[in-house]
Amino acid sequence: MVCPLFYRYGMSVDAGFIYGMDTDTPDKLWRRTDFIINSGVDVVRMTPLTPLPGTALFQRLQKENRLLYTNFPNDWERYDLQHVLFKPAHMTADQLEQILGQSKATVFSDAVIEQKYTRTLAATNDVTAYVAQSFNKTYQGALKAFLPEYFNAPAF
After folding, report:
1. Quick check: 6 and 12 in contact, CB under 8 A?
2. Rounded to whole angstroms, how far apart are CA atoms 103 and 115?
3. Closest by alpha carbon to 3, among 141, 84, 123?
4. Disulfide: which of 1, 12, 15, 70 matches 41 by Cβ 3.0-4.6 Å?
5. What is the pTM of this model?
6. For 52-107, how does the pLDDT look when each residue is reduced to its tens digit (9 = 90+)?
């Protein structure tokens, strides 16, 4: 995916990707990860689907008995856009967490961040590329602290 209009004006492309929608399968999630790596997206966010209390999604999953954590206020710490909070439709919650963790470790590896930096620099300018890389490096640091088990394992 190339974004020439954005790049012409010196802007990078920042995109968020949600893992765990009811149509997701493990294969679809791995393909999404490949897309993130190979697309023209410069800055990435990856989160599990998060059913926040008071939303229609929360109510639907509650009605379907698919919520894993509803003991409030004790469970609020899990509602951080990092934890899987429900039973996915086509895999287990553990599978979703593992795929998302491995995907994040791959997308936020030094090699992929450098690849994105080089592509952004070639398409825009040094300031835009540096800012995009800084966002990715900051997210990488947070993920290394939050998910160390995935960053010490070999990439898929």
Report:
1. yes
2. 16
3. 123
4. 15
5. 0.90
6. 999 999 999 999 999 999 999 999 999 999 999 999 999 999 999 999 999 999 99
Residues 148, 99: Cα–Cα separation, whole Å: 14
Residue type, 150: Y
Task: Give the burial string for 11-28 (b: 16+ CB within 10 Å, else e).
Answer: ebbeeebebbeeebeeee
Alpha-carbon separation of residue 78 from 17, 47, 75, 100, 104 (angstroms) = 19, 13, 6, 16, 18
Which tokens in the block code for residue 47? 């989160």
User: Token pair for residue 102?
Assistant: 């491995």
Per-residue pLDDT band for 6 (boundaries 50, 70, 90) equals confident
Contact 42, 112 (CB under 8 A): no
> Three-state secondary structure along 79-145?
CCCCCCCECCCCCCHHHHHHHHHHHHHHHCCHHHHHHHHHHHHHHCCHHHHHHHHHHHHHHHHHHHH
Check residue 155 and give its pLDDT: 54
3-state DSSP assignment of residue 50? coil
